[in-house]
Target: Peptidyl-prolyl cis-trans isomerase
Amino acid sequence: MLYKLLYTVLFFATVISCKSPEARRPVQSASGTFIKESAERNKKIYDEEKSFIEKLMANDSTNDYISSEQGFWYYYNSRDTSSTEMPDMGDVVKFTYNIKDLNGNVILSEKENGLQQYKVDQSNQDLISGVREGIKLMKEGETVTFLFPSYKAFGYYGIEQKLGTNIPVQSTITLHSIEQSN
Model:
């Protein structure tokens, strides 16, 4: 009789212990609202900057602005209509540039930046994305002024003690040379 009781208890213990383990539930669950709020805030910032830049362009009757597919605007200070070569991936370009706020106050001068050498789309050089993309629209010897919204410039970080956060900028770039890669 004792054996029957022992076998019965072992049988039920085995059946109960064969239950699959349950996953632990998180103490807190992320709702994803921070990401959504951040995206909405960034869209609002971009819309405000875009309308400000569009008003600035409308008031400037001396220059013909071109809208780029990358989300910024530009005009030619000097244009080369005879050359057709534009930098491609892997080409080494030499250029000078400055950074100004949209009121024309110099933030970084050409002298501070110096002559830059950049391998297109292959260099980890510390350039804002607007300058990297703008160079690809230029030909050798051209000078172009770009108007960048903050997300194409210094964005949330700005430049310490020179430029605040989320400030659109303008940059005048002169492309001195293009060394074609094979």
